[in-house]
Amino acid sequence: MATRRGSGQKAKGKDLSSSPKPLKDLDQKVESLKGRKHPLDDEEDAGPHEGGEVLGMLDKFGADVSKAFLAKRQRVETFAKTITKSCQQKMEQQWEAQQKERSKVADDYSSQLNAVLHQWDTDMIKAKEQQDKMMTMFQQQHKLFQQMRVAQRQRLNTLKQLLDQYTQALEAVEKTHYSQQETIHSELRQEVAMLQKKVLMDTQQQDMAAMRKSLQSMMAMM
Questions:
Q1: Is residue 188 part of a domain?
Q2: For every one of its 222 residues, what pLDDT tens digit does the chain have, with 9 covering 90 and above?
Q3: Is 190 part of a structural domain of the chain?
């Protein structure tokens, strides 16, 4: 389509460039005819009537040629104006079409770019929210960890105190048990000694009774 338009414009350009050339030649011929002296003027026997007819014919021919030249010139100017206006209209239409295409492409890419930027902003807002949540959670976890450390330290101190108390109580119990055992052993020793003494006394009494009985028996036999 562009090739055909180009060829048409070239052909019209050739018509415009080639049209004034024959008109220019014709104008030069008319001027040469007007400036040339007719041979009848040189003849002394030519009549005034005959010379006037020739001049009238020449003037009429020159006027016709001038009218034809002016008419053709007007047609050429009109055609040139029409071609110029048509070319200008086509160029304006093409420029408007190109502007619309550029605007459409720019609008499409602008809408896509705005969508991407909007999504980018949304992602950044979400990331900021997640970061704030994570920071809040981290602070809470850190606070909870500190509280757990304090509670564990308190529990360790309590366990240490309980262990110390248990150790002290166990030592006190052992001391008490040792004292009780010593007391029991002492009492047992005393009881054993008393038992031994009693047994010894009982034995001695039995021996004495036996001896008395033996003596009485012996005395009775005598």
A1: no
A2: 333 344 444 434 444 334 444 445 545 544 554 444 444 444 444 444 555 666 666 667 667 777 777 878 888 888 888 888 888 888 898 899 889 988 898 888 888 999 999 999 999 999 999 999 999 999 999 999 999 999 999 999 999 999 999 999 999 998 898 888 888 888 888 888 888 888 888 787 777 777 777 777 777 776
A3: no
Q: Is residue 26 part of a domain?
A: yes
Q: Is residue 167 part of a domain?
A: no
- Domain residue limits at 46: 2-126
DSSP letters, the chain, are -HHHHHHHHHHHHHHHHHSHHHHHHHHHHHHHHHHSPPGGGT-TT--HHHHHHHHHHHHHHHHHHHHHHHHHHHHHHHHHHHHHHHHHHHHHHHHHHHHHHHHHHHHHHHHHHHHHHHHHHHHHHHHHHHHHHHHHHHHHHHHHHHHHHHHHHHHHHHHHHHHHHHHHHHHHHHHHHHHHHHHHHHHHHHHHHHHHHHHHHHHHHHHHHHHHHHHHHHHHH-
